[in-house]
């Protein structure tokens, strides 16, 4: 049993180098499998999902390994069949990218249902609708499903809602389909653009990525290349928010500030001072000592990211006044609020909206991280709370943040990871503050 132990820590300060984006890496690793030749990816973070993907790749005769340089080498030239162990597929969200990447090459892909963060229902109807329009057949079984096609054909697809997962998956499928595919109401996320950039470097013909209409002309062959994943905007955002929570000064390095536009604007509104470096590759957040309540509505990019809603909630518990957060992408994504209340936060939840009475002191407690971003939210709340906060569900946090403890410690945070056996677990309960 593992937990994070966090103590109140004020004025965190220092610089953090931001690693490659988890969400982009998941797409790029699958996209590389479209190639007929080896691909080398730089900046892929060492997170749990990567380990599972390597095992899946091995079972499909795709060589995928981390070299001593840290780069990931992928040789998909021997892949013949795409049968993905249902258990492994369900250990993370995006095993479905292997459908897009391998359907044209293999004709059939079998895999388990998507896992990943389980905060709400996360349907894949848009993936299914689009692949069916391209000629694929689906067969659903108890623990797995099969997607098969004789010949994948380009199609004109309108997404009923903006979805980054389906935009990426169908873009992958369209690259080697016969003819032209047009994706309308497409997601404009940096991860979509990153995937299109890699694919174009491999010889794909994709235009319009980053706008709401993407056009893909199918090609017969794709070549190898070397490519670097974009920095993780969600990790960068969480560290900028940490400056506000602890009244400190934090610089995030190796970032693309444009990807954090909505986050920067909100932090300014809340009272942080934000400065970009002259080379536009780092951002510094300075606490001004005063926080203001605000209203936030999450939206797909370039809106305020649903994945930054949770750390921002931790910050707004510290801002005197009434803040309101609505999650328009996942209206029920508020598991972290139940845990924050155990730490004394005054938050009311009504139909997809959190009403936060900020400025109420938090106290340490035993809390549980139900997903990646709930975890970072509780960690930040723990830095602001009096006493000791113990956070279980560390495996969720480790899905998204590499070396989280070491990085926060380097900024001055009092945080440690504790790995215990069952006996000590009793101690954990006994020493925790009584739940409110
Ligand atoms: C690995 C990865 O990249 N995960 C991110 C990705 O998840 P993921 O790609 O799963 O999320 P989507 O962008 O697809 O979801 C956006 C919205 O569309 C809905 N939808 C999506 C597909 C579908 O077939 N039907 C449907 O109704 C979803 O329920 C949600 O309301 O984007 C989410 C929204 O920015 C982020 O929170 C996740 O961190
Ligand atoms: C929800 C997330 O991840 P996933 O889609 O991989 O579950 C996330 O990164 O916040």
Automatic annotation (TrEMBL):
It catalyses: phosphoenolpyruvate + UDP-N-acetyl-alpha-D-glucosamine = UDP-N-acetyl-3-O-(1-carboxyvinyl)-alpha-D-glucosamine + phosphate. Keywords: Cell cycle, Cell division, Cell shape, Cell wall biogenesis/degradation, Cytoplasm, Peptidoglycan synthesis, Pyruvate, Transferase. It comes from the Bacteria. Phosphoenolpyruvate binds at residues 22-23. Pathway: Cell wall biogenesis; peptidoglycan biosynthesis. It is found in: Cytoplasm. Gene3D superfamilies: Enolpyruvate transferase domain. Its EC number is 2.5.1.7. GO terms for molecular function: UDP-N-acetylglucosamine 1-carboxyvinyltransferase activity. Cell wall formation. Adds enolpyruvyl to UDP-N-acetylglucosamine. This is UDP-N-acetylglucosamine 1-carboxyvinyltransferase. It comes from Paenibacillus solisilvae. The gene is murA.
